[in-house]
Automatic annotation (TrEMBL):
<dbReference type="InterPro" id="IPR004387">
    <property type="entry name" value="Pept_M50_Zn"/>
</dbReference>
<keyword id="KW-0472">Membrane</keyword>
<keyword id="KW-0812">Transmembrane</keyword>
<keyword id="KW-0378">Hydrolase</keyword>
<feature type="transmembrane region" description="Helical">
    <location>
        <begin position="99"/>
        <end position="120"/>
    </location>
</feature>
<feature type="domain" description="PDZ">
    <location>
        <begin position="163"/>
        <end position="198"/>
    </location>
</feature>
<keyword id="KW-1133">Transmembrane helix</keyword>
<keyword id="KW-0645">Protease</keyword>
<dbReference type="GO" id="GO:0006508">
    <property type="term" value="P:proteolysis"/>
</dbReference>
<comment type="similarity">
    <text>Belongs to the peptidase M50B family.</text>
</comment>
<dbReference type="GO" id="GO:0004222">
    <property type="term" value="F:metalloendopeptidase activity"/>
</dbReference>
<dbReference type="InterPro" id="IPR008915">
    <property type="entry name" value="Peptidase_M50"/>
</dbReference>
<dbReference type="InterPro" id="IPR041489">
    <property type="entry name" value="PDZ_6"/>
</dbReference>
<feature type="transmembrane region" description="Helical">
    <location>
        <begin position="387"/>
        <end position="408"/>
    </location>
</feature>
<keyword id="KW-0482">Metalloprotease</keyword>
<dbReference type="Pfam" id="PF02163">
    <property type="entry name" value="Peptidase_M50"/>
</dbReference>
<protein>
    <submittedName>
        <fullName>RIP metalloprotease RseP</fullName>
    </submittedName>
</protein>
Amino acid sequence: MSYLLGVVLFALAILISVSLHEAGHLLTAKAFGMKVTKYFVGFGPTIWSFQRGETEYGLKGIPLGGFCKIVGMTPQDDDVEPGDESRVMWRYPVWKRTIVMAAGSITHFALALITIWILAVSAGLPNPDFPTTDAQARQEPAVIRLSDCVVPENSLRACAPGDAASPAAQAQLKNGDRITSINGTAINSYGDLLTTLRGLKPGETAQIAYVRDGQPATASTVLAQTQRPPLDDPTGAAAPVAALGVGLVPSTPTRVTYGPIGAFGATADFTGQLAVGTAQALQRLPQKVPALWTALTGGERDIDTPISVVGASRLGGEAVENNAWLVFFMLFVSLNFFIGVFNLLPLLPVDGGHIAIAWFERARSWVYARIGRADPGRVDYLKLMPFTYAVILIGGAFTLLTIAADVVNPITLFSR
């Protein structure tokens, strides 16, 4: 029940975000005097609507987005009524059209920023000093977290029947113990622990010295076997190595909370990291198509592949089911930021395409004026329709592929 509640809540959050996106277009267009005839949440048949002034507001039967109809977005629009010629969007200055078209993405960014700030002063944001690379982790003290088993292959999968029990657990070690030596070799860091274990063999007995609650103690256990690449070459071929069945408990907290003022700086820093991550994710999109097809046809789902609204909602459901509300809201932040950036790409039919054309027209008019030639006027959108259809076709196919992968072979963050 909690899983389904989470799915519904996340889907509702997305719908509200998209509705506010369209409201951004609506409010800025009306503020500049443009004529807006329709504002609807959803698509398909109309369930309910009302007229206020010159705008019809309502709810459609398919709750997958929304739309805002601004009269005369292009010179080729033929829905201009007599007397409205001066209020069509394309006649307004380029800066006003830019604000109107960018208002949707700005709304998504605002939602993300507000949510990040709230998290910063409540649940906390990821600690920038938390070790995120192998090199950083190896500098940490060897404070351990027990695994339930030792997976025999080089994999991060959950334990399965037949996997060897954790040697550390068999030795009665506990989470939070700090290992200080193995077979007489001093362990001063997690890197020392890994290096020392690589010098031993699977099946060999290890004499372990450790500290628990400030008190030194010793234990003995037989090491298991797993597969790992060389420590100095994480991309190298995996080979059999000895395993203790432990992970690292970093000495730094995973999250940091801030005061109301300090949260602004933390929000800015986190947003910068989010922007870099989003740009990198967009660059990787074409490379992930084969991985999505592999997942759809029965292969393992790469956790780094894109997800659709369906996949995001399923992850939101998992987060609620596991009481991981921070994950829920971080998903909400990431999705809003991604949608905001995606809508600013200079491609029709998204908002960024209209902005790019408006500024192209402005730049072209300026150049023609400087060289003494007549202004060529507005871009003919009809000539761009083949490119627009190509973007729609490619984007639609990619969306369908992602949704299918999220249904057949979804990404999961928690064991269910």
